[in-house]
What we know:
Helices cover 80% and strands 0% of the residues. The chain is mostly helical.
Amino acid sequence: MGIQWRDSLAIGVEAVDNQHKELLLRFDRLLNACQAGQGIEELKRLQKFLGEYVQTHFSDEEELQRLHHYPGYEAHHAEHVYFIDQIKKLEAETIKDGVSTHHVVETNNMLLKWLLNHISKVDKELGAFIKSGTP
């Protein structure tokens, strides 16, 4: 059931690709934990990780965009804000209600799909721009 890094997700910026690999590895752990009936415990670990790592990752990506004068910066930043919002909402729910199977499913469906879509489309556009050397 898990999710694996595949070269088609690479954007061609090694530091960003390595961060994406780490994010997918963490989601893969959640998916595998779900198969083993331990999704709730793994979701707690994933939430803690995401709360810290995603901020760093998005900050790094946005710094690259500013450095390269990326014209899609505002839209890209808005997507990052949306993702962080979703993480915060999910975390607030789990604090209020406790972690449940619903939260595990929600994380798998919404956040993972968003992440894969964001990497394969939005981040790929950024990578192509950076590689083109366009000022």
